[in-house]
Amino acid sequence: MKEDNKTPNIIKILILAAFATMVLIIFLQQLKVPFMLEDLDYAKNLVTGEPLQSFNDISQSLGCIFFWKGGSLVAGFVLQVILLCGGYVADIINILVMLLCSFLIFAPVKRSHQRIFFCVFSFLLLIALNVDWNNSYFRQFGAVNFFYPSLIMLALLNVCSKVVDNNDDYKALGPVRTAVLSVAGFFAGVWSPSYGIMCSLILGSVIFYRSKVSKELQNTGFVTALFFSIIGVVLYLVCPGNYTEGSVLVTNYINADVYPSVVLALLVLAIFLRMGGELKPSQYLKCYAMLCSVMLCIICVFILPVAPNGTLLCTMILGITAFCSLFYTLNKIVGRYRIYGYILCSIALLYDVFVILESQLGVE
């Protein structure tokens, strides 16, 4: 007898109500976070020191970012455009980026009720698993430099996941997808080296997998995208401002406490082992990307003299992506695991409310 996998309407309503409430709470919290530190610095023409008045001020500031401030010209341009538009525009953009990120984490699912649940779950986990969500999502400098490029990486990962799951339908990548992956890889690299390196590793693993599956599969499009991704990272790293004191590359902006992400990574591995051979190629790809990000984070923290800001968020987002993908498949194999999903979602919601109240009340 086939098990009924439909989600009761009351559960859907409760999930959507909780989601809408949490989005409203997050947005109200966002409104209360003022521009601070680097935000106020970048709200000026970096050459003259006067407040931003036009795009001419932004164009003058780009040279200062390249030679002195360090970081990405793309991130600096986006940051100053948002600051020029004002605080309310920044608040709206930040919440929209969070929503889009939670959608991209589980975009491949076709069933609407499952997509709703995992979109909500991903949104809640973005808060619950981030030990420094205030600097990561709300303060504009941190959001633009370390969170926004996650959208590019997730878009690239979703395209690659679709291809590796349907190799017979994509014997060649095609000009449109080649262009999309090349542009995504390039901008991920010039925006943030952490995300650029991860895009390169993802593309490289896809090339390796497809070359092993069949000699008939053409990987020219993926090789092209990999080339542009590497070029993007190189262009970021040759920026002379990255090697000055106080640059984005060496300054610890986000708390380096990675324990929540490590716990999530271990949970992903536990589900991975439980499922055995039931995984799709795309799920192996997501788990591989997560493990590479963990290793990159360890290298940044213990070996290289650079700050792990972007890598911390990258690890968490890839962990959430792998976890949601594996849990979705596990639920299809063993239906009773669905109740665990509802329990985890409820715990994430309650924890989010707790950390927001803690922030509001100033509890130490």
Work out the strand percent.
Answer: under 5%
Biggest β-sheet strands, sense, barrel: none
Total beta strand runs = 0
The shape is: globular
Q: What is the CA–CA distance across the termini? A: 54 Å
Tell me the number of structural domains.
1
Listing every helix as H and every strand as E from the N terminus to the C terminus, the arrangement reads HHHHHHHHHHHHHHHH
Radius of gyration over all CA atoms, rounded = 21 Å
**Structure class:** mainly alpha
Average pLDDT taken over every residue: 80
Helix content range of the residues, please? over 70%
Low-confidence stretches: none
Number of helices: 16
Description of the molecule:
With 364 residues, the protein is mainly alpha-helical. It has one domain (9-361). It is built from 16 helices and no strands. It has helices at 9-31, 38-42, 55-69, 73-85, 87-105, 112-128, 133-138, 140-147, 149-165, 175-191, 193-213, 220-237, 259-275, 281-302, 309-333, 337-361. The chain is globular. The model has no long low-confidence stretch (mean pLDDT 80).
